[in-house]
Amino acid sequence: MGKNILFFGPNGSGKGTQGAIVQKKFDIPHIESGAIFREHIGGGTELGLKAKVYIDKGDLVPDDITIPMMVARLQKDDCKNGWILDGFPRSKDQAVTLAETLKKEGLALDYVIEIVLDREIAKERIMGRRLCVNDNNHPNHIAFDAIKPVEKDGKLVCRVCGGELKTRADDQDENAISKRHGIYYDETTGTMAAVNYFKQADGVKVISVDGSVSIGDVTDAIMKEL
Ligand code: AMP
Question: What CATH class has 4-117+174-225?
Answer without folding.
Answer: alpha beta
